[in-house]
Structures are given as C-alpha cells and as structure tokens.
TrEMBL record:
It comes from the Bacteria. It comes from Nonomuraea soli. One of its GO terms (molecular function) is peroxiredoxin activity. Gene3D superfamilies: AhpD-like. This is AhpD family alkylhydroperoxidase. Keywords: Oxidoreductase, Peroxidase. The keyword DNA damage does not apply. The keyword Cytoplasm does not apply. InterPro entries: AhpD-like, CMD-like.
Amino acid sequence: MQPRVEPLPPAERTGFAAKNPLNVFTTLARHPKLFEAWLGFGGALLYGTLPARDRELAILRTARNRDCAYEWAHHVRLAREAGLSEEEISSVRHDGAGLTPGDLLILRAADELHADGDLTDETWSELCERYDETGRIELVMLVAHYDMLSRVLTTFRVQLE
C-alpha cells in the first residue's frame, strides 16, 4: 500500500527528523508546527513517570487494539529494552496468559479505553491502588495518545522501515 503522506526526502529533513529518519518522524515533519508540538508531548509521555515496563505494556496493547503494525513493531524493541520477554510480548497480543495481575490491569485499562473511551469504576479503583494521581493521569493520556497516533499512522499509510 502506498503512503498517503510521503516521508520527507532526505534533502528536506531538518532537526529531529534529520537525526531520527524513521518514517513516523519524516512523515509528520511535513507539518513542522504540529510536529514540534507533538514531539514535546509524545516525549513527555514516552519518558514520563510510569515504569518503562508499564508504559510499553500499555502502548503495545493499544497498538494491538488498533491493529497498528508500525506502532507494534517499534514498541516491541522498546518493550524488550524495558525487560519484557518474548513470551510476555506475545501474551500482550493475545490473552495475557502468564502476565502478572498488575500487567493485566494495564492491559484491561487499555482495552476499556479502546472499547469505551472510559474506565470502569473497578479498574479505576485498582489503578488508584497501583499509581498515584500523576501516574493515573499519565497512563490514561499515554493510551489516548498512542490510540491517536495509531489512527494517524494507519490513515497516512506510514510504511514500516
């Protein structure tokens, strides 16, 4: 499938997109003002306060829920760096078998946000036991952000490198 929005050619890349020539960056850099704002927001979520393992579980589950191969492929590497095993990564894609109750809570939160745009009171209560207020805000915004990004990547037909 051809991209609907072509990545910038190498000669036109500047700044972050020149240093990090992944298709997600070189495509979104076609709108410089939005790209710069998005980098700041996305970076704040990617390197926020959540443990890396929790962050990657949430992102992978969101990529799976949106069937976004680009997001999945890039975050599998980050999930490995965060300490997830191949079995755990595969489990995120499927039924969650073998994951801890805390891991399953993150998957459930991502699933509920995907399906309903909201969390049940039970899930919220469990998140309150696991995270402080900052962590809860960040988790919900992380899932919402990667849901949005997966829609953008899919709509623009961004190709995997």
